[in-house]
Structures are given as C-alpha cells and as structure tokens.
Design brief:
CATH class: Alpha Beta
Shape: globular
Strand order of the largest sheet: 3-2-1-4-5-6-11
Mean pLDDT: 96
Helix content: 25-40%
Low-confidence stretches: none
CATH topology: Rossmann fold
Number of helices: 10
CATH architecture: 3-Layer(aba) Sandwich
Length: about 300
C-alpha cells in the first residue's frame, strides 16, 4: 500500500462512469492512495462518498471541457460506457458516441495540457470475437460480433492513432470477464448467485462455453501496478486477465456447492446465442512481460473470497 500512496500522493484522478460497477470499485481503491478523486457520470445521484462528483455527458464537448478545466487531472480512468450484449444495431450510434467520440473530445480538450500523465481507455476482450480457442492477443484483428464490441474497437483504434501519431498519453485496457460486488444482476455470475442463494431453479444453456473470469479486486491490483510501473507505450493495448479459462458449468457447480444451494440447474433449457463464442482464452503475456512477473490468478481462491460475502 505504501508505494501506491507515495506514487499517487497529491495527484488528481478523474474517473468517468464512477457510478458503475468498475467505477465504484476504482473510487474505493483510489481513496486509499492519498489522491484527490473526481467522479463523473450522467446520473444526477453520486453513489460514492467522499469525492467531488460532476454530472456530465462525455459526448458533450462543452460540458466535458468545463469539467476538465476545473479538475485538471493527472490521471483519467475512462469507464463511461453503454454496456449491452444485445445485438441490437439501433444502439450502435449512441455506443459509438460514448466509446469513440468521447475519446476524440478528450484528445481535443487535453492535447496541449501539460498536467495529464495518462488517460486509460477501457476496451473489452469481447472485441476479439471468435478465434476457436486461439489465445486473444493484443495484435489480433478484431472480429467483433456486437455493436458494443465494434464501438469499443473504434475507440481503441482512435486511442492507438493519437497515441502513436501525436504521443498523446493514452493506453487502452481490455479486461477479461470481470465479477464482483456492485455488478448488475443481469450479469451471468450475479444472476447465478442471486438464484442459488434463494434456492431457485436455473434455466441455462448447456454452459460448455469457456470464459476467463477475473475478480475486480485482482484486476485493480494489476491495473494499478501497470500505472506505477510506467512501462507502457502510448496508444498500446493491454489485456488484463486471470490467465485461465473455465467452463460456465464448472463455475455454476462450484458456486452451488460453496453456497450449499438446493437449486435445480437445468442445463440445456436455453439455446446458445447465435455466433456464441465457445472458447474464450485471453493472453496476459504482454502485461506480464511489462510487469516482469507471471500473472496467474487462482480462480477458486478469488471466487471463494467473493462468495463468502453472501454467507
């Protein structure tokens, strides 16, 4: 903890999407680091205590410019997003604004700013699409299959362009599948746990697809280490993952046993989504090399810690 407090001492950190799942955890984490934290979101209500909050739409250039002028941040965690796994093309325009146009706004407002140390853009490992079990590495062509993933890729590519061409201090992070408290109940793990603790039946797909799950606390450990190591290159993409994939069925059965649930689980009651990604294997070799350590998370250990909060 000491090295983090020393590094961030007196720094100003702006977190967009601060009312969201990752945002709330990021606020809690950085509050321990002796820095000044600002939150930003479209919601009127601020869900975080002890920070200054701005109601602001990141796609509105004037609104964002006013916030950045007042806060003058050293670090920005750009988490504002419109998240949906639904393949509804009508969402694309708004998603593109939030995930790509907002980055253009940040660039135009801050391109001559001498205070900014790093803008961290958040992409998604969903961008990679279906590679039939091949590891998702940062240099792969994105086979995005949803408006969300495509719009995230647009933002990542814009960040790459200005990072490389203009040496603008931005990087993009692609997390694997995150889980933890504050997550929406429509997310897979939250949905599973909610039903298991109530001993309610679950209708699921055969759950043979694999995913790389990483606990939000573990994710923030790795992200913070990346920031303070300062070995990143502007514009670059960095996966942050656990380094191992699990079948969804394994996860469900593990949680069911841990929570001592009597729920009936009906595998195969639902069909897989069209173009479902069956093998989800995320490489963390790049960030492991930068941090000079083998990043390998113990899923069972982390998942058990998380599940204990429900007992």
């Amino acid at each position: 903890m000491g090295k983090y407090r020393e590094f961030f001492k007196g720094k100003r950190v702006l977190i967009t999407g601060s009312n969201g799942f990752i945002g709330r955890h990021a606020v809690e984490r950085f509050k321990n680091y002796n820095c000044e934290i600002y939150g930003l979101g479209v919601e009127k209500e601020n869900r975080n205590k002890g920070i200054k909050y701005f109601q602001c739409d990141v796609t509105d250039y004037t609104e964002l410019s006013n916030v950045l002028e007042e806060t003058n941040p050293d670090y920005i965690l750009h988490l504002a997003a419109l998240v949906s796994a639904v393949r509804d093309y009508s969402l694309f325009s708004k998603m593109l604004d939030i995930h790509a146009k907002s980055l253009y706004n940040f660039y135009e407002i801050l391109k001559n700013n001498s205070t900014l140390k790093l803008l961290i853009n958040f992409g998604s490992t969903e961008e990679y699409g279906n590679y039939n079990g091949r590891q998702f590495k940062e240099d792969l062509f994105e086979k995005s299959l949803s408006p969300y993933a495509v719009s995230k890729t647009a933002g990542v590519h814009f960040a790459y362009m200005v990072g490389k061409n203009e040496q603008f201090p931005v990087i993009s992070i692609r997390p694997s599948v995150l889980y933890g408290k504050y997550q929406s109940e429509n997310k897979f793990i939250s949905y599973i746990i909610k039903n298991l603790i109530k001993n309610q039946s679950l209708d699921l797909t055969p759950c043979k697809q694999t995913r790389d799950f990483i606990w939000i606390e573990r994710f923030l450990n790795i992200l913070t280490d990346l920031i303070i190591a300062k070995q990143y290159c502007y514009g670059e993409i960095y996966n942050i993952s656990s380094g191992e994939s699990k079948e969804l069925k394994y996860l469900v059965e593990y949680a069911k046993e841990f929570l001592n649930s009597d729920s009936e689980v009906n595998y195969g009651a639902l069909d897989y989504r069209e173009n479902e990604i069956m093998k989800f294997n995320v490489s963390n070799d790049k960030i492991s090399s930068i941090l000079d350590k083998n990043i390998k998370c113990d899923f069972e250990k982390d998942f058990s810690k998380f599940l204990k909060s429900y007992l």
